[in-house]
């Protein structure tokens, strides 16, 4: 095998021969999809009764979840085992996160890149192992949208069928993930706002721990997320971490250098892991200088040899150590680092490095880069650590031709019959990065071989990106047959997702290109898919029924009665069409013997955000409290309704206020009603138990301008001056009487002497003699 290019040669007898094409049958909602890498995928309607045969998906057990989690960890690189660094100065944050997740709350852990968020998530995962029914689920949110994360959560909790894998529709996915009760740890969150709210709303029974950087979009106010901020380490923790990374105690000079580095890097743990790599490289260089052979000048002259010791790095080199670290690593490690820079910071799997680099021991380069802090784990793979790519680009360390070499290697590897679709999906980010950096010929070849693998592995987000990149590359290269294949696959993908307009456009384009090429088999598959689109359009979408505007239900209908609770209150008389005010509101009106039914809306309590598996014992107590509150509200409403007064008769007077005017001046008297006397008290006997009590003399009702009685009574002063109350203090002056006539145009101006009240006494008005 030519390991430089990653391609099998003709004289390589150990290279496996290419087997038959991988044809995989999938169940997608109401369709059956057959992934055919040769002529394009074929889609057909599911036969009747197949839904009952498939059944509900089975949940994974604890052993299955542990095996799946172990398989999703990044591979252990060959060579000497790396030093496992402990989690320092994170006990408070660790206990707080475990406590919040135990209560069912979702938390957003915010910290700068390199602050140790992934290590903290690993520690919290062990603390929350037995909290939720479905255990702990680890996900990676790097370059993932909410839909892909929901499918990843579904595939982690539910076990797929090996013979007939099924990809649920959007509605089925939401129904299944809504029943998952797990503690989900999501690292490298890339989105916020409404997208994050959609993810949390779809999983009400999950407690999420979201690790993000400060530049990640903030969540919305309706997300109900707790915020935990992760800062840098203290001086003592930084020195201890550096000692553990170096493997020896620090000297006094190195301790002072570590303190300055802590101030310059704000205590980021990643900087001290990289600083440990710098000190180890310095120790190796100094040790190799001391253990040189004895042939150097000065040995036979019995004089000491000049030993040149490597000094400590400067503070600037410690804050940005990538350039200095790369200058001291092996050549294979530098070559692997060039591939990572060319593949958008994605490091290929260690098994691919010997073929890519051209060195049989290049797989050990991953361990060397990890020990220096140049790589970090991201899900099931490795990526460049934060800031390494920028530092290498500024120093002039670039890649030339590595992306094309990687594209050719992955085009051979993804199309090989011995490579399973799951292995291609695990290397998906590196494959997509190689596709973006290759030329049009290599891009078409890689997309043609990788697209069926992504489709069979149910990673349809990567499948769509590969198809679109391949379609553009085929159009640029003038490959009509490949362009027709990509348009056909895009049409099938749109049909599976329910986007009928897009599916019709893609399939018609593909059929036109295949008709020009006289491709009969491809045209038949395209016409069958187009017939399904036509049938689906005639049937209409099931998920969006037409909007129907119906008239509201009558007041006594069953629908309205069920929508609101029944409360017994006092009746309200109806107004006839041609009735006067007196006929509508008679003075001797009596309430009916029985109560009437009036519907009063009651506000339902808002459900608290978060899973319910942690507060089921308190659900009954909370329901009882809400029931008592609703009953008290209804009783209060009924009592307040029964306290309303009956309408006043034209000759009656309301009860005056017990507080006199604080200014000492009474309002002008209003003209008396016809047939009434201002000096004689008028008393109306109550016509019902709820009628008003007799009013004192000196008040009367003012007739309304329209002829009917006014419902707003005006208090009239007595006709003769009232004597001061017996309880008034000596020295107080009674208020002056206002002018007899309220008319401003005929009555003369009467001066009013201001009075001064030294003590305010609230007393009832004196009776008229």
Structure in words:
- With 769 residues, this protein is α/β, with parallel strands linked by helices.
- It is 40% helix and 9% strand.
- The chain has 27 helices and 18 strands.
- Strands 6-9-10-5-11 form a five-stranded parallel beta sheet, sandwiched between helices.
- It is flat.
Produce a short descriptive summary.
By secondary structure, the protein is α/β, with parallel strands linked by helices. Helix 5 (146-157) packs parallel to helix 7 (193-202), helix 8 crosses helix 9 and helix 21 packs antiparallel against helix 22 (480-496). The termini are far apart.
Which descriptors would you attach to this protein?
single chain, 769 residues, alpha/beta, five-stranded parallel β-sheet, four-stranded mixed β-sheet, 27 helices, flat, disordered N terminus, disordered C terminus
Question: Secondary structure elements and their pairing?
Answer:
Layout: E1 24-28, E2 31-35, E3 42-45, H1 50-54, E4 58-59, H2 62-71, H3 91-102, E5 106-110, H4 117-127, E6 136-140, H5 146-157, E7 158-159, E8 166-167, H6 170-177, E9 183-187, H7 193-202, E10 207-212, E11 225-229, H8 235-246, H9 252-265, H10 269-290, H11 315-319, H12 322-326, H13 331-342, E12 346-347, H14 353-357, H15 365-371, E13 375-378, E14 381-384, H16 388-394, H17 402-414, H18 421-426, H19 428-437, H20 440-456, H21 460-477, H22 480-496, H23 500-517, H24 520-539, H25 558-563, E15 566-569, H26 581-584, E16 596-599, H27 619-642, E17 699-700, E18 714-715
Parallel strand pairs: 1-8, 5-10, 5-11, 6-9, 9-10
Antiparallel strand pairs: 1-2, 2-3, 4-7, 12-14, 13-14, 15-16, 17-18
Helix pairs in contact: 3-4, 5-6, 5-7, 8-9, 8-10, 13-15, 17-19, 17-20, 19-20, 19-21, 20-21, 21-22, 22-23, 22-24, 23-24
